[in-house]
Amino acid sequence: MTATLDTPATGAEPGPEETGRVRQPQRPVLELVPSSRREDVVATTDLTAEQIEELGRRLDAIRDRVLAERGASDAAYIRDVIRKQRALEIGGRALLFAGVLPPAWIAGTAMLSIAKILENMEIGHNVMHGQWDWMRDPKIHSSTWEWDNVSSSAEWKHSHNYMHHTYTNVVGKDRDVGYGILRLSEEQKWNPYYLGNPVYNFLLSLFFEYGVALHDLEVEKLVAGEKPWSRVWQQIKSIGRKAGRQILKDYVAFPALAGPFFLPVLAGNLTANVVRNVWSHAVIFCGHFPTGAVQFGEEQLDDESRGEWYVRQLLGSANLDGGRYFHLMTGQLSFQIEHHLFPDLPSNRYAEIAPEVRALCEEYGLEYTSGPLWKQYLQVLGTINRLALPNGKR
Fold first, then answer.
1. Is the Cβ–Cβ distance between 52 and 303 less than 8 Å?
2. How far is CA 3 from CA 45, 231, 301, 360, in A?
3. Residues 284-329: pLDDT tens digits?
4. CA triple 195-192-36, angle to 5 deg
């Protein structure tokens, strides 16, 4: 579901009949403190309202052009990626069956790690955004895709496609700001729990798929009495079913098929999942929390126009520099800015339109945050470490 695409500025939550959820009172998710750092789009730029809306119309024109151009070459791209990902996974699992030999274990684990990254990042994430629904292929469709991840596709599409992409970097509304675990904004009121920020982040990176699955539980709302136990229990059962299948597949079924080589296969699968988790965590955190990415207060959402929504997505996101295969392994989230502006466009088109978006930013005097992965990640880690302290600053 891409609720932000056609009416990105409304902030209207889908109804219960669409989400299967009971609408809850709109209250801040986190305990926040007033701060002079609270920003909105108008205060962050020197643009007039007319200029912001003109920028929005020019971004709309880019989106409309790419939508009109989609065709056979785009369909061939995603089918080719899926075919190669499956070949990597089959080859990797086959080599792990000979994993008692160190070269076979290393090669098998590497191939399976790459396959899992491709499946989650370039395929699963983008298919579930509906980027390939226009192909009308039921096997590559957001309504049918279930990915190789503990988080079920249904829960993920609500927490990511709706919550994160609608309220991007709005502190108190976008639960990706800290995932309910970390302090990633000065707006979040400090308490001694946050002294563990670096440790929580390290553990989150190792078990990222579990963190993503659990963060939609919104435990803090449950504690505050804003979310019924009945809804949380439904989610726990859904997560348990998906986690059980994932654990059975990677840590029981495939190792058992290897017979006497059970342990090498188990170790290879565990390593591949950890590699995928650490990589996904790094790429995703660098998309919104390095130096230059702006956070916003909830007041930004009041009567936010389409142009202001575009500018918030642009200023709240950050790109990563790299080559073709680097971009592929990030699921094109190295073009996080373009992805947030146009989450329904085929991911293979982001590299093509990025220069146009950057040129528009230069023309309108807007920051286009981009940098190498190592630099962005060090900035994110620095922020996490500083905000562990009561007087820490971003």
1. no
2. 26, 22, 15, 25
3. 999 999 999 999 988 888 889 999 999 999 999 999 999 999 999 9
4. 90
Which residue shows structure tokens 């730029």?
45
The pLDDT value recorded for residue 217 is 84
pLDDT (tens digit per residue) in 223-260: 777 888 888 888 899 899 999 999 999 999 999 999 99
Q: Are 55 and 48 spatial neighbours (Cβ–Cβ below 8 Å)?
A: no
What string of H, E and C letters represents the secondary structure of 76-139?
A: HHHHHHHHHHHHHHHHHHHHHCCCCCHHHHHHHHHHHHHHHHHHHHHHHHHHCCCCCHHHCCHH
HSE-CB of 364 using CA atoms within 13 angstroms: 29
- State pTM to two decimals: 0.88
Please give the Cα distance from 309 to 38 (Å, whole number): 16
Q: Which two tokens stand for residue 330?
A: 């990030």
Angle formed by the axes of helices 350-364 and 49-69, nearest 10°: 160
Residue 123's nearest CA partner among 86, 73, 155 is 86
At what angle are helices 72-96 and 102-118 packed, to 10 degrees? Answer: 150
pLDDT (tens digit, 9 = 90+) per residue, 134-162?
Answer: 999 999 999 999 999 999 999 899 899 99
